[in-house]
User: Fold this.
Amino acid sequence: MFEFFRSIVAITVPAFVISTMLNVGLTQKPSTMVGYLRDWRFVIRMLVANFVAVPLVMLLILRITSFDPEVQAGLLVFSLGAGAPFLIKLTQIAEHRVSLGAAVMMLLMLVTIAYMPLVIPLFREGSSVDAGTIAGTLLRQMLLPMIAGMAIAALVSGFARAIQPWVAILSNILLYVVIAATFIGYFPRLGDIVGSGALLATVVFVLAAFGSGYTAGLGKDHLEDVGALGTAQRNTAAGLIVAMQDFRDPNVLVVITLANTVGLVLLIFLARLLSRDNPAHVAAV
Assistant:
């Protein structure tokens, strides 16, 4: 039975990633997203927070703890990817403009595609990770579906509006399937991982990342909120791709899935707190 659910994970992870990025492309206009990225100070602070400060936080956590190597690898991969599509949903919950969340997501995702293949081999002694293979997979499963969605929306807008709700539903279903299948398929391994303290480390990491992203907002409420959520919500899709392709130990994938689940629950709660200060009408813009 466990092997059956593990095979489901192998199929649904890329399907989840592709459908999620396709939905982003179907719903967001490039011109609107680019407009938010003209604030170069915010952009630079977000890049530093996500690709310098946050990984350093995780390295510090791993330095003062004594996790098994596969748990360390899972937490590290989880910390390195930024630009999660779920940021759009968190932006809605926080009642900020969806286009701002999409702009931040797109910026961080594009950098992640180049960043992860370069840095992962640096943290793995004797690593045989093929940076080109990782980059190619991330491009195919993340960037190309988003571009395809944008092209469909621009060329056949009626068709795009018709299929978008179904693509969004499919993406949500696949996320739940990935989480459930991972938990069931690797259930015998969960006890050791949970008991190791990895979940507590994840909570500390997410809160630290949230604070780091908040400071990137330069005192502007909408940039502070979305910057915090965008930095704390790591790109689990990219992490899962790397875990399945370049790590033989399945515990790496399990750790990433567990960390993502803990992070989602915590960030949904924080987004609802942030929404109390924001006008509800901007959420749908």
